[in-house]
Amino acid sequence: MSELDLMNLKVRVLGLGGAGSLIVDTFCNQASANVECYALDSDSKFLGSIKSAKTMLVGQEVCRGIGCGGDIELAQQAIEQDRDLLNQILEGRDVLILVAGLGGGIGSALASVISELSGKTNALILGFFILPFSFEGSRYRISNTTAEHIRPLVHGMFTIQNDLLLQEGEGNLSALNVFENGNRWILNSLNSIQNVLFENGLLNQDLGSLKKVFSQLGGKSFFAVSGEKEEFISDMESVQTFIQAFLSGPFFHLDIRPSHLDKLLIIIKGSQNLELSVINDISSLIIKELNFKKDVNLGAFIDPSLVNTLEICIFGKSEVEEKQLEAKSSDRSAKEDASSSSLDLGLEMSEQKPKVHKSKLGKKHKEESDSQKEFQFFDNGENRGYFENTDTEFYKEINLDMPTYLRKGIKVKYK
Q1: What is the pLDDT of residue 247?
Q2: Distance between CA atoms of 69 and 382, rounded to whole angstroms?
Q3: Quick one: pLDDT at residue 236?
Q4: Residues 46/65, Cβ–Cβ less than 8 Å
């Protein structure tokens, strides 16, 4: 991609509600000049604390700038009259990235509405969403309902459950530190996408690569990012230990992870000493762990701030709906082809009779034939006396109950 194309590439990252806005505001300090960052909320006081991202107050007529208090119905009412305003910030973008907490407030409502409105654009739509703890009752149920509503409307949807943060955090970590882990995962992912779109690296990828991976709306998406920048000595054993720790992390063992992937993008960042052999080993281990058999999109970039460490980010996609549609289409085509063939062949079809098991032929033969009916004799004891108390059997005025040698006058000699 030329420098002119990069300058014309329009990317907008939208923080929706409190949780999403804080993450986007932090990312804005690291964002490329071509990336626009927005924070959207119904609380004017909260938006006043946003330092770097552009802000947009929504639902002012309903919420009066004091927020919706986590009420999803009130939040939905609040943004209904701002649809035109929301459309304006979506138009003409090449990539739209949504970041929100789906806890049932303004973030959930904005994520739903903006996902719907984004479908009218030609943009690649990606979403990073944080889900409440499972013990939060109605908030948790609302988050799952909202997520399922959003999934078919975006090209890539990545969720982080707060339960996962509890599993990852150590017992002595504060709540703020635990939540920072989840924020860091999203920030690392946003930075990796930015590298793909705007940076030249050892192995380049671009917008076309992202569109190749996320070519369809819906389906299931997968992402995994490395955590803290754990340092290691630059030898192969240390690198493999680092990668094995990454592969044993939570992203690869979640129930919501797709069982298989159709598309895969691996992004590796390292210091200026990053070697191609290391890139090869990292990619090979990841591909083996995911049991991925198709073409891999691989990007590798230099980050001078990384010393004796690596950053890894993976994006994958399972086109579930697409496979179902292909299967249905294939079945439909097969039926149509069969019907068409039968019409075209006409009488030839009747001449090419399929093979039928002889047991079925025998049954059919007995039903259609005029010939003498055969009696079935059985060896089973329960069938003895089969001919008792039956009427005489005649065929063309011949008594079939009479033995053949008597009917034909054949003399039988006994020695």
Answers
A1: 85
A2: 80
A3: 67
A4: no
Distance CA 399, CA 392 (A): 7
> CB-hemisphere CA count at 13 Å for 143?
22
Residue ranges and CATH numbers for the domains of the chain are 8-198 (3.40.50.1440), 325-407 (no CATH)
pLDDT of residue 241: 83
Burial class from Cβ neighbours inside 10 Å (0-12, 13-18, 19+) for residue 54 reads middle
- Matching residue, tokens 């609040």: 78
Question: What distance in Å separates the CA atoms of residue 258 and residue 317, rounded to the nearest whole number?
Answer: 8
Check residue 291 and give left, alpha or beta (phi > 0: left; psi -120 to 50: alpha).
Answer: left
Helices 175-198 & 17-28, crossing angle to 10 degrees? 50
Count Cβ neighbours within 10 Å for each residue of 116-149 and write b for 16 or more, e otherwise.
ebbeeeebbbbbbbbbbeeeeeebbebbeebbee
- Non-local (6+) Cβ contacts of 105 within 8 A are 17, 18, 67, 68, 69, 70, 71, 72, 75
Residue with tokens 């990235």: 97
pLDDT of residue 172: 57
Distance of CA 375 to the CA centre of its chain: 62
Task: Specify the pTM.
Answer: 0.74
Per-residue model confidence (pLDDT) at position 67? 87
Element (H or E) spanning 285, and its range? Answer: helix 276-290
Run means of pLDDT, 10 residues per run, the chain, 415 residues: 66 96 95 94 95 94 87 88 91 95 91 93 95 85 92 94 70 62 90 94 93 93 81 69 83 77 94 88 89 92 86 89 49 51 41 46 48 50 48 60 61 49
Query: Which is it for the CA torsion 152, 191, 131, 54, positive or negative?
Result: negative
Ranges of beta strands (E only) in 303-364 are: 311-318
CA dihedral 201, 205, 210, 212 (to 10 degrees): -160
State the pLDDT at residue 414.
Answer: 44
DSSP state of 73: H
Measuring CA to CA, which residue among 254, 221, 34 is closest to residue 128? 221
Residue 154, both tokens: 């975006």
